[in-house]
Each structure stands twice: as structure tokens, then as C-alpha cells.
Design brief:
Blueprint (H helix, E strand, L loop, with lengths): L5 H6 L12 H29 L8 H14 L5 E3 L2 E3 L4 H22 L4 H26 L4 E2 L2 H24 L1 H8 L2 H31 L1 H11 L2 H14 L1 H13 L4 E2 L4 E2 L4 E2 L27 H15 L5 H26 L11 E2 L2 H34 L2
Antiparallel strand pairs: 1-2, 1-3, 4-7, 5-6
Helix pairs in contact: 2-3, 2-4, 2-5, 3-5, 4-5, 4-6, 5-6, 8-11, 8-12, 8-13, 11-13, 12-13, 12-14, 13-14
Length: 401
């Protein structure tokens, strides 16, 4: 099958029964359609609950289905345009839904089609991605109206990228490509990646602890926000689900708070460990834990230690390998710089806009986060790796007879 033209390979079956029993396009269409249907089914349940118990039950059932489509499109991190205003502050947890479904769809497609070569894998991945993007474009066109819509080209681009990365990763995994690539990587690259991941997980874990403490301390205000919103029993459950979906955003914001730049809750506002300048905040449970105007208490400065701890963990991960102090410092600095780039990208993903008014700027400034993180994490990671390597070398030399 590898020597056939692309079009023939897309539509051909194997008459000898040695290969796939269906064309590539059919397998790709089934995988893409399954992914969309499963995502629709998962999202439609809470949407229909909210629709059934809403204050306006006379609204058409088709509106609930259109809302489901909009949520599905937003899960691909595509901004919504509501009444001419852009809503791009979207929950990162929702992004996990298409990622997981596309990965599962890619696994099934690889097993069903059995691609034998890298070109077969690329062809299958591309077919899934294009069909997935086209389905989402059709759904978006049906659900869009004068009051709420999403950009068609953004829907297609986001769908293509997500499907190509997620389904493609699953296909490569099933074919053993990732294992071969990982084994061929230099040991230094493996250690660099592991050290970066260790530093990121450390910072996120510490941010989760701080976020939990803040919500516990302001538990009364959190409960009051539910009361003020007057959501009712079902509405409260849905609001809790929405809050949980925004938890990853909150963790990135807390990490930005700890790094120094902080985050914004509207134009001209800043929330950081040094100063908190906010105007009237929207009523929302997670917002209740945000520090009020003024200089945060001295205890807030403790969070500035968080990135230092993450940098030390990164440096320790590098230093535990058998390297010279100079080599350890260089590789740890590279890991710190890579971690800064990742944090800047996550900061960009976690923010956005809520309409075109005062809340048009929400979240951390990605470039500031990347710059602060690169300065702190690179230097501290390199210094800690050098110190730990020197300590290990001196300890080993002192124990020799």
C-alpha cells in the first residue's frame, strides 16, 4: 500500500484480506465522527439539565442543542463572539475533552487500519484531522446566529491542529514510533525533559496548595457568591462544574502570582504578591479568593519561594546524574529556560477576554511570565545544580581511601 498514489491509498481496500478491510477515508470518517458524537453526548447532559431547570423553559430545544455545539467548539479553545463581544477566557479543563477523545479515536483508527509505514500514519492522521475539522465547521455554521458565533477559520484550524497532534500521537504510539524515537534520543535530552517536567509539576503542586488555602480562608465569601447568584440547586451544581473546569486556569494564575508578574482581572488591574489593584470584581466563587485592593500581607511574600523550590527541584534532577558541576549548571539552566517557555505558553492559554468592556483583559501577561520565569528559573536551577554537583563531588572525594 505504501507505493500507491495518495488518492488510491485513501479509497482502496485490500482484496486479499491481508490489510485493512475498509478505505482510509472510511476509517478516518468513523474515528472523527465518533469523537464528535461522544463529545456532544458528554456536553449535552449538563446543558440539557440547565435548559430544563432554567427560568425560561419556553426556550426552544434547538437552542439547547446549539448551546451544546458552542460549548464543544469552545472546548477546542476557539473564542466565542457574543453580541459582537469576544469571549476568549475559556476553561482549560474543557480542552481535555477533545484531546482525550481524539487520542482514543486515533488508537482505534491505528488498530483498525494497521498503517505499516510512516507515510501511512501521516495519511491516516491527516484524513482524521481534515474530516474532524470539516465536521466542526458544519456544526459551527448550524449553531451560529446573529447573537453568538465562532470564526469558521479558527474552528477549522484549531480542530485540525488538535486532531493532528492528539490522533497522530495515538497512531504513532500504536505503531511503536514514539518508543523508537525516545530510545534514539540522547540521554541528556531525556534528563532535560524529565527535569523540566519535575519543575513544572512542583510549581503546579505548590500553586494548588496556595489556591486551596485561599479558598478555605475565603470560604464565607465563596458561599456568599453562590447566594448572590441565586442559581438554585441544579444551577449550583452546574456552577460548581464550571468552577472545576477553570481550576487549571487558576493554578497557572497562582504560579504567575508566585513568579511576580501576577495577573489581571480587567483593564488597568493587577493582582500580584507586591500589590493588588482591582476595581469592582464580578461575582464568581473563584474570584472571592482574590486579594483585595492594597498591599497584600507579608505572608503573601512566602509564595515567592514557590518558583525557587521548583528551580531547585529542576537543578537537583539534573545534578543527580553523573555530570561535572559545569555541565550540570549548563543543562539545568537550559531546563529552567525551557520551563519558562512552557509557563509563558500556559499563561497565554489561561487568559483571555470576557466581552469588550472592563473585563477585556483577564489573566496573566504571557510575555511577562516568560521573562520573569526565565530570569528566576534559569539562574536558580543552574546555581542549585552546580552546588549539588560540587557537594556530591566533594563527598565522593572525601570518602575515597
Amino acid at each position: 500500500m505504501a507505493n500507491l498514489p495518495v488518492l488510491s491509498r485513501l479509497t482502496r481496500t485490500d482484496p486479499d484480506g491481508q490489510g485493512p478491510s475498509r478505505p482510509v477515508l472510511v476509517t478516518a470518517a468513523i474515528a472523527a465522527l465518533w469523537c464528535v458524537v461522544m463529545g456532544f453526548v458528554i456536553i449535552v447532559v449538563p446543558v440539557l439539565l440547565g435548559w430544563a431547570f432554567s427560568a425560561g423553559p419556553s426556550s426552544a430545544f434547538s437552542q439547547a442543542l446549539a448551546t451544546t455545539v458552542h460549548v464543544w467548539i469552545a472546548a477546542h479553545h476557539v473564542p466565542l463572539v457574543v453580541g459582537g463581544a469576544t469571549f476568549s477566557f475559556l476553561p482549560l479543563a474543557l480542552l481535555a475533552l477533545p484531546i482525550i477523545l481524539l487520542f482514543q479515536a486515533g488508537k482505534w483508527a491505528a488498530r483498525a487500519q494497521g498503517p505499516a509505514t510512516t507515510s501511512d500514519a501521516v495519511l491516516l492522521t491527516t484524513a482524521i484531522a481534515v474530516i474532524f475539522g470539516l465536521i466542526n465547521i458544519v456544526l459551527n455554521a448550524w449553531a451560529s446566529s446573529g447573537s453568538i458565533s465562532s470564526s469558521a477559520w479558527r474552528v477549522f484550524l484549531a480542530s485540525i491542529v488538535l486532531a493532528w497532534v492528539c490522533a497522530g500521537s495515538a497512531i504513532c504510539r500504536e505503531m511503536g514510533i514514539w518508543e523508537r524515537v525516545f530510545q534514539s534520543l540522547p540521554e541528556s535530552v531525556k534528563v532535560l525533559t524529565a527535569a523540566t517536567a519535575a519543575g513544572l509539576l512542583t510549581l503546579v503542586a505548590l500553586s494548588a496548595v496556595l489556591a486551596a488555602l485561599a479558598l478555605i480562608i475565603h470560604f464565607g465569601e465563596v458561599c456568599d457568591s453562590f447566594t448572590l447568584l441565586g442559581t438554585g440547586f441544579v444551577g449550583t451544581i452546574l456552577l460548581v462544574v464550571i468552577c472545576l473546569a477553570y481550576i487549571p486556569n487558576v493554578l497557572i494564575w497562582v504560579a504567575s502570582f508566585a513568579l511576580g508578574p501576577g495577573f489581571a482581572l480587567g483593564t488597568g488591574t493587577t493582582v500580584s504578591a507586591a500589590v493588588s489593584q482591582t476595581s469592582a470584581l464580578p461575582v464568581f466563587p473563584l474570584v472571592a479568593a482574590v486579594p483585595t485592593n492594597g498591599t497584600p500581607p507579608v505572608a503573601a511574600a512566602v509564595v515567592l519561594v514557590f518558583p525557587l523550590v521548583a528551580a531547585v527541584v529542576t537543578g537537583w534532577w539534573i545534578a543527580k546524574t553523573e555530570r561535572s558541576p559545569e555541565s550540570s549548571a549548563a543543562w539545568a539552566g537550559a531546563a529552567g529556560l525551557l520551563l519558562a517557555v512552557v509557563l509563558g505558553f500556559l499563561a497565554w492559554l489561561s487568559g483571555g477576554s470576557i466581552g469588550s468592556g472592563r473585563l477585556s483583559e483577564v489573566g496573566p501577561h504571557a510575555l511577562s511570565v516568560a521573562l520573569f520565569a526565565s530570569l528566576i528559573l534559569t539562574l536558580v536551577s543552574a546555581a542549585s545544580a552546580w552546588s549539588l554537583s560540587m557537594f556530591r563531588a566533594r563527598t565522593e572525594s572525601s570518602t575515597r581511601p
